[in-house]
Structure formats: structure tokens, C-alpha cells
# Entry
Amino acid sequence: MLSVANQKGGVGKTTTTVNLAASLAMHGNRVLVVDLDPQGNASTALGIEKEETSRSIYHCLVEDAEIRDLAQSVPDIPNLWCVPATIDLAGAEIELVSLVARESRLKRAFSAFDSSELDYILVDCPPSLGLLTVNAMVACDEVLIPIQCEYYALEGLGQLLRNVELVKSHLNPSLEISTIVLTMYDGRTRLASQVADEVRQHFGDLVLKTLVPRSVRVSEAPSYGQSVMTYDPGSTGAVAYMEAAREMAHRAKTGVGN
Ligand SMILES: Nc1ncnc2c1ncn2[C@@H]1O[C@H](COP(=O)(O)OP(=O)(O)O)[C@@H](O)[C@H]1O
Ligand SMILES: [Mg+2]
# Structure
């Protein structure tokens, strides 16, 4: 179970969650995506119809609804499910404050859920370090951090790392950063390769070898309610996410990078 987190918006959290999940499912894994961002972009990108969704992860966090009852199967991708987000979730950050065990509501929900038939659970976090992201870091032992290959890539990363350490020392001793994914890589610019080098120097083997290139097809796919894996499987972005998923699955087996 891993959370996809970075408090910066627009670095590729949702894109990475959706496309890694789709790739892993297409390789025969059983995968659940939990959309923990009130914007609900992961739900939309996976083709979950907003009009037909009244209950979401909000109801699990705030009203004790069961994960099993909230998970919807993703159209066109067997073995992939999504617990969607609805706009109610925007209020959860505040509503959670007054609840008992507010940091571990998601963990509790998953303890009551039989996940033994799932191979991966990916939680798409909102662009903040608030209670929703903390819930994800308490529920998941692994954090995957997408980093956009651009000038300000490393800015704010220290704060994210400190938060991971805080959650680890107070709430979830098993928490580890397991994976870094470099996103929106533009091979034509020196800056992108400098950022990639810098991230590799800092995080070593945690960084996947696969670079996700900037690709128009990746950014188009969500407007069709699809992952790029189904929208254009031959595109550079789809090939990269397939390769990234393969690396992750390989690491899970061999422990490299853990
Ligand atoms: N590899 C890529 N190539 C082109 N556009 C991308 C790529 N990855 C993400 N994007 C676009 O960048 C924007 C931000 O990505 P998103 O995954 O929503 O970030 P976050 O969830 O971190 O806010 C979106 O419009 C998305 O379509
Ligand atoms: Mg997002």
C-alpha cells in the first residue's frame, strides 16, 4: 500500500497514480486506487462518472462507510478499482480535526477491509501536507514521491521529508519513502537532466531508472476519462509508465531500492 505524495500541485501525482495503477493492473495485478484529493482528478481520469457517485472516500473517513462498499470497478481495465473522491472531501480536512483518532481514519478503514486479494493499493494525495495526506501516510507504509523535472523541483521537498519523518516518529514507525519518480522530463533541455541528476544524487536507488517524458498524449488522456495506457498505449508516456510499473514490481520482489 503506497501513498503518492508531494505537497506541490501539478508535479504529476495524479497522472503517476492513475497510469502506474493501470500499468500494474494490465500486468495482471489486482490494484485499488484511493482518490484522496477533493478535486477528484484521479477518479475522473479513471472514467468514474461524477454524476453517478454520491458516496466517496469522504464517507469512509468521516462517516465510517466501508471501503468495500465504495470501491468501483474501472471501465475497460480488469483488476482495477477506484474509491472515488467527491467534493465533500474538501470539507474533510476541517471536519476531521474534531474526530477521534483523526490521523488514522484511513488506516482504520483499511484494517476493516480484507485487502488480501489485492496486490497494490495506491493513494493519490492532495497538494498539501494536511490531515488528508497525514491519513495516507499513516495508512500506507510506503511513500512514492513524483518530482517534476523543472527549476523549482527540489524546493519544498525538505518540508515533505520532515513531514514523513514526523509521521514516522509519532504515528507510523514503518513509514518509508520507497520510490521517487521523475516526471515531465524534457530531454531537450539541459535543466531537466540537471534536475534528474541532482535528484539521483540525493535519493540514489530510490529513484526509478525510468524517466517519464513530457508527452501531450499523457495530458490529453484524462479528458477522455482514460489513462494514457488505454488512450494511447504506444505513446512515449504510456511506454514509460509501463516500464516504471515493471521496475516497481521487480523491486517489490527483490527488495532493491527498499
Ligand atoms: N508526463 C506528462 N506529460 C505531459 N503532461 C503531463 C505529464 N504528467 C502530468 N501532466 C499534466 O500536468 C498537469 C499536472 O499533473 P497532475 O498529475 O494532475 O499533478 P498533481 O496531481 O501533482 O497536481 C496535468 O494537466 C497533467 O495532465
Ligand atoms: Mg492531483
Observations:
- The CA atoms of residues 52 and 214 lie 32 Å apart.
- The chain has a mean pLDDT of 95.
